[in-house]
Amino acid sequence: MQTPEILVKYIRDGLLEQEHAGYVILANRNRPIDFKGDSDNCPFYLRSCAKPLQASLIIDFGMDKFYEMTEEEIAVCSASHAGEKVHTKVIKGLLDKIGLDETYLKCGLHEPLSKTRRREMLLNGEEVNVLQNNCSGKHVMMLGLCKMKGWDLSDYDSLEHPLQVEIKRKIYDLCEVKHEYPVTKDGCGVPIVSMPLVNMLKGYLNLFCDKKYEKIKNAFLNNPYLIGGEDRTDTKIIENSEGLIAKVGAGGLCIVVNTLTEEAFVVKICDCDMKARELTVIQTLKNLKWADIPVDKTIKTLHGDIVGEIIVN
User: Could you tell me the CA-to-CA distances from 274 to 136, 213, 250, 254, 267 in Å, in that order?
Assistant: First the structure.
């Protein structure tokens, strides 16, 4: 039986207005060491937290050397980016190296996550471009691997495609998954696996604490803005800490790795609220003394009057 714990409360002028429940698990490379809430070892979809795990094939297959990839290009392959010019420029450059154009991408269209970029496009009358999809870097990586290996480019998003078979095998290996769990399509259309939260932590620790994948670790640490962008939680954490790697995922997920102590924690917010996720992650960082990132916990009117507070457990 899953028993999530209340992690965030909004108190408006003395009355409880909203609550957000979920789980927090802290672990080192050997075992879990602390919990909030009991997930009963139930599986959750990895969503975009899978991206750095998927990107491990860049190293395994030698894609980094084959295309002479820069650190920035490795970063955007692992990113849920905000669709700003700094992101799409790097992604377009990698696509050119691979020798393909945007028509091969199967990630679909959505507006940039960056509010500033959306306003800029509106003012300039620009159309939405597929490279602005927050998963476009991952899809370019997948195309690059397929072209390098001689695999079909037209159905790289299929569960039965050799690429997706290899990705699932690799993620199960890194995350030490011993059982089959549900698989579905992620928002961008490619397969995404599920697993217990503890296995997600194992995967991140096995990836980011292994010298074999140091290029991926350095891509995160040295390019935090490419990993997310404007007002993105993972970017805030990496920019305002030392040795921390963070990656958010839809479904209320965020995983943080302390590469200096080789520990990690995962946050899962049950109602998938992004603000509650960020508040919980930042408070956990403070509790662990890994980082102290300022965050506004007041509830305000549109006129700036303070009418309440947000309490983070």
Answer: 21, 29, 9, 10, 11
- Indicate the fold that domain 5-312 takes in CATH: Beta-lactamase (3.40.710)
Contact (Cβ atoms closer than 8 angstroms) between residue 196 and residue 78: no
Q: What is the pLDDT of residues 269-311, one digit of tens each?
A: 999 999 999 999 999 999 999 999 999 999 999 999 999 999 9
Query: What are the boundaries of each domain within the chain?
Result: 5-312
Q: Specify whether the CB–CB gap between 267 and 22 falls below 8 A.
A: yes
Q: Which two tokens stand for residue 225?
A: 């803005």
Q: Which two tokens stand for residue 134?
A: 């927050």
List, for residues 38-57, the tens digit of each pLDDT value.
998 999 999 999 999 999 99
Task: Say how far apart CA 193 and CA 182 lie, in whole Å.
Answer: 6
pTM of this prediction exceeds 0.90 = yes
Residue found by looking up tokens 């990993």 in the block: 227
Return d(Cα 72, Cα 64) in angstroms, integer: 11
How far apart (Å, rounded) are the C-alpha atoms in residues 137 and 151? Answer: 19
- CB count within 10 Å of CB 29 equals 12
User: Residue 110 and residue 51: Cα distance in Å, rounded?
Assistant: 19
